[in-house]
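Bug #77: duplicate submission created two jobs. Keeping one. Sequence:
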Amino acid sequence: MDHKITGDGARAALWLALVGNPNVGKSVIFGALTGRYATVSNYPGTTVEVSKGSARLGRAFVGIIDTPGVNSIVPMSEDERVTRDILLNEDIATTLQVIDAKNLRRGLLITIQLIEAGLPLTLALNMYDEAGERGIRIDLDALSKATGLNVIPTVATQKWNIDKLDDIFELNKKAAVFLRYPDAIEDAAVKISAFLPEMRITGRSVALMILSGDETMLGWLKSRVSEDALKKMEEIRAVAQGQFSEPVGYLINRLRLKSADAIVEKCVTQESLAGGRVRNLLGTWSMHPVWGIPVLLAVLYLMYEFVGVIGAQTSVNFFEKIIFGGYVNPWAVRVTEYVFPSGLIHDLIVGPYGIVTMAVTYAIAIVLPIVGFFFIFFSVLEDSGYLPRLAIMVDTVFKLMGLNGKAVLPMVLGLGCDTMATMTTRILETKKERVIVTLLLALGVPCSAQIGVILGMLGAVSFKATLVWAFVVALTMFFVGFLVSRLLPGQSSDFIIEIPPMRLPQLSNILLKTVVRVQWYLKEALPLFVLGTLTLFVLDRINVLGALEYAASPIVKDFLGLPVQSTQSFIVGFLRRDYGAAGFLALQKNGLLDPIQVVVSLVTITLFVPCIANLFMIIKERGVMAAIWMTLFIFPFAFFVGGVLNFILRALNVSL
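Kept job's structure:
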């Protein structure tokens, strides 16, 4: 059944599809055209997310859809199948292919297929500046002549030449097909096309997909052609295959690559730039198994200073003491006391567990400044190209846990949000890998809000304390991953990742990402902070909180060596990990935690059970029983590690 594009841009008369390889800047161009960062939803009947929006290009109001990144329109993955289905089924008026100018050959493989599909097309050569920095010179006129298409060089991160895309409906053209396959393939394509229904793309391109052995087309074909036609098309395909010793799909792809190579040879020249090699030296070091370690330590130190010192001390003191301590909370107390001088409502709003004095103060005055600084730093890491290099560097370690470097991608995303990262474990190819990464995310990967508070607390202690916390958490995750990989059956998959060049991040992109993430934080966190405060308020009113503190005293006070008030932080930590960490931050500010207690509390809350949102996602992705077993393991194990750490630090009289 056809899927019609709905959602943002649904009132548009025309639809533009952005197509291209992964990591070529499609989403940046999408954001520049639509005026926002991204809005995503699952494509009907799949788990793949696509971005949709709208814009006015020239005189037309246009709907824009950012298709998943692909390496071919003959699908080898669910992402590629969704992109193929969008081009095949949706009301696409025109297409814009975004190509990495540094890797023209890879992009041209898709260009050839889009031309064969008969779709109006324009090429955006993105990252044009980076190609120049590498000494890559592209003759735009020669490329336009070779493909029969209009070619626009762009630098999406700087919005350079993006304005030229306003005329895309005037620029786009249907190029003449310039690649002819062996007669046996061409004849078979003509015969198969005769059985195909009217389509938005050419019958020849669909016939070539069928001849390539694309089994994902079978469902689409069954709903449109008769069983007799299906049988005859399969007979034609079998006859064509019988004339070649190699698979027809392999022959077609090889000829496309050969054609792409011929175009590259005509249009591209490579200059030798010594300066470019020097600029990429840092990028090489950052993924080296030895030299990458000091680079990683330098990154951690900069994050500690920026988030833990500037964010958690300077900014938090300003918001907590001046804004909230001097204005917001006193004003809230005066207004509340005027209406409710005392009693239940008074305490609910401005009491020890009040919505204003605790929930809003924690969320806005304490956590938000730290999280905001972390979002800025994380955006710099994203845009600089460092994170894929980190994946390369730790690939060897991950193999010891039955994983590969690809597993680092959900783990890194977990530094933003563990809930969303759990969903992205779908990119891992085996069930074993998905289970291990889901467990490690729930166990020891702090989300952005939590790690911001953690760095804030550690920033008030020492960098040595930061290293101890990071070492214990990393060692624990490695131990658990290593053990689980030996217990779970199955194999790990191969690791393939594209390494972008090291870039100087653009301030406008960093600010845009930070604003979007702060909006997400406020929408996601503030309601749960209020819910957590209400939970503590109710437990306190019915005298359960004191009973819980008393019951947990042997573990919290005697084993972990923490104040009994820490029980409150663990209770609300289940709702949101950063809320639990914020509770420890409040204890630290009140002088109730010494440096060892700070490190022990942070290790324990980091390894603590996942927040409730992440738990629901684990249930959705891995099932109820898996979520139960993970929780039953993580809860006692976190306290065990924290208690052992407390014993070791006290016994060795470690100074932090």
